[in-house]
Design a protein that fits this description.
Structural class: alpha+beta
Largest sheet: 4 strands, antiparallel
Shape: globular
Number of helices: 4
Bound molecules: 2-amino-4-trifluoromethylsulfanyl-butyric acid, cobalt (II) ion
Radius of gyration: 17 Å
């Protein structure tokens, strides 16, 4: 499938969708505390998206996904299903929010600390965020996807972490997952060249231990094989003439 280059008008609509997705993370942050269940976080996000934002939570029923957000705790890598289990002191939690507004998607995720996680969990969380940020800072026309993947991989591995290979960033627009695939590992000078009007996510999944993962019997939740903690951060970007615009930037967030 070809990469869809968005018009200025389409990017304006994606700006709205991206802002709404970011706003869900801003809204939910104070609720991510010890004792809350991820099912409760899902319900609060769902009601905010549907009733306040008048938008659509994209994960709900996507290929059969049963909830409106993904919540991945500790050694869960991604696509965790919100559940009645309570968060506890020391947990690290990824909440991944995707909303559809006026036909376009905005997709973003961040990590939260519950109380004081241990040093290894805090380390992998920081490295994953740095991987996302250094890649975002590289995005401009002419840069190739392999350049981004290689830089992300090098940063993670230099700091004793590993990159999950089975899942990647993606083009995004009218569809949740469009071409191209945005790998978080690779070789500089390879892959397609970025051009203005491309919209895609970068969402590195970084493990504190080995890179290998397995799928739980629920057929959604991905965990690390060695049960090491895993972290992920995600933004939706648009390539501009001179760099990129982060469509899901949160208030006060500096990249
Ligand atoms: N939000 C995820 C991504 O970043 C996809 C979740 S698909 C779901 O691409 F079905 F699990 F919600
Ligand atoms: Co995504
Ligand atoms: Co996402």
């Amino acid at each position: 499938m070809a990469i869809e280059i968005k018009t200025a008008a389409e990017i304006e609509t994606m700006r709205v969708a991206g802002r709404l997705a970011a706003e869900v993370l801003e809204m939910i942050a104070p609720y991510v505390v010890a004792g809350v269940t991820t099912e409760e976080l899902d319900r609060i996000c769902h009601e905010h998206i549907v009733d306040v934002q008048k938008a659509i939570p994209a994960p709900l029923n996507y290929h059969g996904f049963p909830k409106s957000i993904c919540s991945s705790v500790n050694h869960q890598v991604c696509h965790g299903i919100p559940s009645p289990k309570r968060l506890k002191d020391g947990d690290i939690v990824n909440l991944d929010i995707t909303v559809i507004k006026d036909g376009f998607h905005g997709d973003t995720s961040q990590m939260f600390f519950v109380g004081e996680p241990n040093q290894r969990a805090r380390h992998v969380t920081r490295i994953a965020m740095e991987c996302l940020y250094l890649a975002i800072r590289m995005v401009r026309p002419g840069v190739r996807l392999g350049d981004l993947g290689a830089a992300i991989q090098r940063h993670a591995e230099t700091h004793g972490c590993s990159i999950v290979r089975e899942y990647c960033g993606h083009g995004i627009g009218r569809a949740f997952h469009e071409d191209p695939q945005v790998l978080h590992y690779g070789t500089p000078g390879t892959g397609i060249e970025l051009v203005p009007g491309m919209t895609f996510t970068i969402e590195p999944m970084v493990n504190a231990g080995k890179r290998h993962v397995k799928l739980l019997p629920d057929n959604w939740t991905v965990i690390t094989k060695d049960r090491s903690p895993s972290a992920q951060w995600e933004h939706t970007l648009a390539v501009t003439d001179s760099g990129c615009e982060v469509l899901t930037l949160r208030r006060g967030e500096v990249i």
